[in-house]
Amino acid sequence: MDIKTFVFKTINLFTDTIGLLIFGNVVYLTIKYKDLHTLCHILLGLYSLSQACSKVMLLPSYILYVLQSTIPIYVCVLIALIPGALMMGTFTFMVAIGIDRMLGICFPFWYIQNKSKLYRILLVGTPFLYPLYYLYLMIQDLPNNSPSNCLLNYVNVFNTLFPIICVIFTLFCYLIILLKAIFGKDPIGQSLREAILKSSATLIFIQNFGWICYLSVKFYITNYIEDNDQILLYGNFATIFSSLITIIEVLSLFITSSHLNALKMEFEWILKLFHKTQINNSVVITNIKINKIYQNSLNKN
Question: CATH 1.20.1070.10: does it fit domain 3-256?
Answer without folding.
Answer: yes
